[in-house]
Amino acid sequence: AQELLISSEKLTSAGQLAAGVAHEIRNPLTSLKGFLQLLETGIEGKEAYLKIMKDEIEKIETISSELLYIARPSHLKFEDENMVAILNDICLLMRSQARMNDIQIEFEPLDDQIKFRCDRSQIKQVFINLIKNAIEATEESGTIAVNIVQSNPLIVDVVDEGPGVPNEMKEKLGEPFFTTKKNGSGLGLMVTKQILSNHDATIKILDNEDKGSTFRVTFPS
Ligand code: ADP
Ligand code: MG
Prior knowledge:
binds adenosine-5'-diphosphate, binds magnesium ion
């Protein structure tokens, strides 16, 4: 089991992140500017350029919306919440996306009520990010399981049947902009770790015996 430690100095020092964001946003902006200049001169085949421009704008949109979730701890709203209700909501939400890819999301809690303190919208974002990654990792059809392993301290696993995470890649996960996906932002796990850190919770990756990986979130007792 490998800890995805929250090495905040290394990963998310504000300056380093800002430099990364600037870099990631500058590339699509440069290409947008170039295509606009081309369009001004009235070239042929406008549709292809417009399509690329739309993709570039979407890239910028993704980056900025993911970064919105890096809230300052002082802006968080901690309240008594029910983990079962939160996970029910999220599974319902993600099932519509999963169904299109022939993926089942299983969540069978043993209790109706597991209380814990958290910022609800932030914790929702954590499980949206993890389940989204699990869906994207599932190659064809498959099952994703969301399991409440125990209630005190509260542990939740998100288990997929994808290819798993190679050992040498594990420590890169959660670094800003680290992605192996064509249209990935590489911000999901960084934001996830940041939110969990604000909750004194941790995340680690377990290797599944058969195939796939398990992302395990442990809350403080
Ligand atoms: P993104 O999803 O935009 O690539 P993330 O920070 O969410 O960014 O994930 C970073 C990388 O971690 C992914 O590109 C992928 O290589 C790896 N990863 C995350 N979740 C899984 C998973 N469930 N199975 C395999 N690899 C994963
Ligand atoms: Mg992701």
